[in-house]
Amino acid sequence: xxEARSPAPLASVDEGRVEALFKEHGALLFRGFDGDLEQFQQxxxxxxPVAVVNxxxxxxxxxxxxxxxxxxxxxRPFPLHPELSREPWKPDCAFFYCLTPPTRGGATTICDxxxxxxxxxxxxxxxxxxRRLKYILAANPTIFSYWLGTPDPSPxxxxxxxxxCPYSFEQISGQIFRTFTRPLLHRPMFTEExxxxxxxxxxxxxxxxxxFPILDNGSVVPGEWVEAVKAASDPLxxxxxxxxxxxxxxxxxxxxxxxxxxxxxxxxxxxxxFGYLRFAPVNPEEPDDPVWRRPGFVPPMASP
Length: 304
Description:
alpha+beta, seven-stranded mixed sheet, four-stranded antiparallel sheet, 8 helices, 25% strand
C-alpha cells in the first residue's frame, strides 16, 4: 500500500517508484490521495498509454471514450479471474478506482496466481504442467471480415490466416469456430515462477460452463483440477474494503480478482481502466506487433 501522509494529488506519486514496486509485488493499493475520474485516467495512461476496450455487458461508460468504464453493475459475487482472459488480447494491467464505496459488501477480492500454483497438491500441479487451455467460440462474417479480409472465407483462407490473426479456425458439424490456446499454468510478466490465471473459475463457478475453455486435446478440464485450484485459492484470497479515492493497480498476468456480493440498490461505483504497459516484456503468446497493442483497437465482435 502506498498511502499519502497528507492530502496530495495522484500525479505526485513517483512514476519510477510505482514501476519498481509493481514489478516486485504485482498488486498496489494507493490510498489517501486527492483525485477524480480525470486524474485516475491520467494516472493509468502514464503506465498504460494504450487502453483495452472491454465489451463485457452491464458496464457504464464513465468518460467520453471507452477507456474508463464502471465495473459490472450487477450484485452477484464474482469468482476470481484475470480481466479478459477469454480473449487473445488479455490486458497487462487492471486499474480500479473507487468513486463511491459500497455501504456493505461489494469488496474486491484479489489473489496471487503464483501463490495458487505453489499451494496446489504436487500431483495436480504436475498434471497441469505443460497443458494448454483452448478457447473455442463460433465465428461469424464480422470476425472473418476483420481478421481474414472477407466475410465468406474459402477453406484456404481458414487454413492459412494472416500472421496478425490470433485465431485458428475449425469446422465442426458444418459450423466454423475460432480458437486460440494459452498455457494452463503460465509465466507472468515479471517473474519466472508459474502462475494460475485464466477463465476456468469464472466459467465453472459463475456461468456453470464446462466446455469453455477446454484442454488442448479437446477434453473437458477435470473437475478435480478446478476444485483443487479453488481449495488452494480460497485461503489466499484477500478482500479489499473500498474507501473513496482508493486506486488498485493489478498485474493482470499474475493476479486474479473478483468480488463479494454487492448489496441491492447500493450506490457502489468503481471505475476501471485496462491497458498495455509501456514497460511490459514481449509476450511470446502474441504475434509480432499485435493490433490490440496499438491505439484505437476495438474488438470486432462482442464475446459472451
